[in-house]
Amino acid sequence: METPPFSSKESRINRYKPIWRILLISNLALGAYMFAKARKKNSSAADNKPAKTGAEHGKSEIEADVSPAPVTTPSVYEEPPILPVVAKPPKILEPIPEDQQLELFNWILEEKRKIRPIDLEERKRIDEEKAVLKQFIRAKSLPRI
Predict the structure, then answer these.
(1) Which among 14, 41, 117, 132 could disulfide-bond with 123, CB atoms 3.0 to 4.6 Å apart, if both were Cys?
(2) Dihedral pair phi/psi, residue 43, rounded to 5°
(3) What is the chain's mean pLDDT, rounded?
């Protein structure tokens, strides 16, 4: 017997079944994890509340005195104090020699000359930067970097 050919919709459904199963399982697992975490938080918050005594529930004083053991409050978990992070002092680098600075400024100037400005404002900005670079190159002493 021949099986009837699947329509395109049925073949898509069959092709994507494993993906849908994985998505469904992962969603359920994530939901269960979130509910378990919320329940754990609620139960730990309830544990931290002081317990009620028998007299508060309407028992007489005699019944409250007959209780086998005194009610103790559970120990409260205290987080250790957070210590401030001590930042390391910045590493002091050696100054760049003047000849390398001059070489660097020349290279930057060459790169600025290669740039093709789009509008007049960008052209003015590039010209100003080139003028500053030229001043540094022509100066007798270079600023420390």
Answers:
(1) 117
(2) -70, -35
(3) 78
Distance from C-alpha of 75 to C-alpha of 52, rounded to nearest angstrom? 16
**Residue-by-residue DSSP string for 45-103:** HHHHSPPPPGGGGT--HHHHHT-SS---PPPPP-PPPPPPPPPPPPPPPPPPPHHHHHH
Residue pointed to by tokens 């070489």: 103
Q: Read off the amino acid at residue 48.
A: N
CB 75 within 8 A of CB 86: no
**Residues whose CB falls within 8 Å of the CB of residue 113, separated by 6 or more in sequence, listed in order:** 130
Model-level pTM?
Answer: 0.37
